[in-house]
Amino acid sequence: MPEKKINVGIIGPGNIGTDLMYKILKYSRYMNLKIIVGIYASSDGLKIADKLGVENSSEGIDALLKDKSIKIAFDATTASAHLKNATLLKKAGIRAIDLTPAAVGPYVCPVVDIAAHIDASNINLMTCGAQATVPIVAAIGSVTKVPYAEIVATISSKSAGPGTRQNIDEFTQTTARALEIVGKADKGKAIIILNPAEPPILMRNTIYTAVKEQKKDEIIDAVNKMVKKVKEYVPGYRLRVPPIFDEDKVTTMVEVEGAGEYLPKYAGNLDIETSAALAVGDLVAKRMLEKEARANEIDR
Amino acid sequence: MKSTGKFVRIVDNTMRDGSHAVRHQFTIEDVTAIASSLDDAGVPVIEISHGDGLAGHSFQYGFARCSDEEKISAVKKAVKKAKVSVLLLPGIGTRQNLQKAIECGAKIARIATHCTEADISEQHIKMSKDMGLEVFGLLMMSHMEPPPKLLEQAKLMESYGADAVYLMDSAGAMIPDMVRARVSALKNGLKIEVGFHAHNNLGLGIGNTLAAVEEGATVIDACVCGLGGGAGNAQEEVLVAVLDRAGYQTGIDLYKIMSVAEEVVTPRMPRPQIIDKAALALGYSGVYSSFLLHTYRAAERFKVAPFDILLELGRLRTVGGQEDLIVDVAYKLANKK
Lengths: 300, 337
Description:
The complex is a heterodimer. By secondary structure, chain A is of the alpha/beta class. Chain A is built from 10 helices and 11 strands. Chain A is 42% helix and 24% strand. In chain A, the strands form 2 sheets. Chain A has a 6-stranded parallel beta sheet with strand order 3-2-1-4-5-6, with helices on both faces. Chain A has a 5-stranded mixed beta sheet with strand order 8-7-9-11-10. In chain A, a hairpin with a 2-residue loop joins strand 10 (237-246) and strand 11. In chain A, helix 1 (15-27) packs parallel to helix 2 (44-52) and helix 1 (15-27) crosses helix 10. Chain B has helices spanning 18-21, 28-41, 68-78, 95-103, 122-130, 147-160, 176-189, 205-214, 236-245, 254-265, 277-285, 291-302, 306-315, 324-336; strands spanning 6-7, 9-12, 45-47, 83-88, 108-114, 134-140, 164-168, 193-197, 219-222, 248-249. In chain B, the strands form 2 sheets. In chain B, strands 2-3-4-5-6-7-8-9 form an 8-stranded parallel β-barrel, surrounded by 6 helices. Chain B has a two-stranded parallel ribbon with strand order 1-10. In chain B, strand 8, helix 8 (205-214) and strand 9 (219-222) form a beta-alpha-beta unit. In chain B, helix 2 (28-41) packs antiparallel against helix 10. Classes of the chains: A alpha/beta, B alpha/beta. Chain A binds chain B through residues 150, 152, 154, 157, 162, 165-169, 172-173, 189, 191-197, 204, 206, 208, 210, 240-241, 244, 246, 249, 251, 253, and chain B through 58-60, 90-92, 94-96, 114, 116-117, 119-120, 122-123, 301, 316-319, 321-322, 324-325, 327-328, 331.
């Protein structure tokens, strides 16, 4: 008997939305992709949807709202578009998983704080920099207090789209806040660097943490375990330099290689966002299915 | 000496790029003394910020002794005529930081990006213009790209409203012919002023600056005592003398700026500003000048040669701001041994 799945839709058939479409079709255990919608008929993402046999429309969110079977919508548009979409989705009773920096809902990292927000009507996936670094800060924070966390995300110029470029302040500010809210550092700071080298570099992240106690073995152990957990949904996530201990800080470096399906391998920054979306989507869908099953039992 | 009748505006960077040379440890007393003496010598623009721009205060670039705001306010208070300038690198600092700097008295905003990434400066250039500032766009590591690419990027900054675009020889890797080709491309293709920022890693801080001026650059960075990242910048008191000899006016009193060097800045220098082996390696392999002291620290920490780290960083085509890669490379070199 085929496992029951939750119907979902994607808004925004750009690079992120299209990559997410591939990932849901290929890997999702609990989601059934019903539709992908955009606003330009000429969009590559919609053409690809045609080829893959996924229902699609260039009539925007209205087309998605018409399908009453949809329970979860991924928004891969822009922050300003999501502000409007969020209201419409909420009215329609559709859960929103937001891949823009709009931050309508709580920040969520699949391996850190999903449990607290699993029933939220709107979930925000922070930034790629935060998805890559918050788990490490949280891991170190599980061993000792982290008064200050600072991250440097370096991505290839080619993988930074116009959204990131025109909103670079929002990227650093959102990432810094995520280090505090989700990573639980008292204070967070984020830096982003674009590198145009050819061939394009993989996304690399340096995580500096000021720690209260230099519990070396415990920190190394917590970081290794966390990297393993992230790897489960981002296979290209790896430790590049294990924690280095200096007097006042711990330095850890990770890199992210993309799965290389729709997006090129160097675009690990985009891959980690869509991978997080898939992971969160599956957790939310699974929870919905469990609730439905329980409700059915009570009915009987 | 025949005068060209041309005026070159010097932007003093002693306390900004020079901040790298003192590991960002200038005190309020330091900046007050330096700023007031520069102002008295007739220096028209004085820049003050963390060496890596506003909000550079970090593990990545070094924690400064005093905040940007404290230092900007102190410089503002210390000067009578000079305009106060601040540096901002999008990705490190934000418009919020810029706004605070403006409240403290900044009248010129300099927005710097890697020389292929000018489009990340749009928000910051536009906001500064809207707030009535003079705005310069800075293209860093400009030795890495050919003149047409630099012109394309400079035009973006011009379109956002910049009053001048600078070519930054951040790695001190250019020789005069490269400077001439790049400055003249911008001079011919832009309607706004062209600026130049030298580093002395190949011993060409003054020579390259003179080449830039001869090609039409009219805003020029310099540091008293040649203070700055790597082997330092164009040495300001020397530049004032050279430009005077070449027939350009700067409005700066040569005798006074020489005294600033000898009496105010030299006593505050922790190390002489020379071209040592590692500084030469920066220029030779085209590595961002402010990596120098970070490289020394990583070399000591991981017991590897600074020179080897810098050559590898050059090979990796690192850009400005990637100081974390120094530790990455040093760690890898140490583990290879």
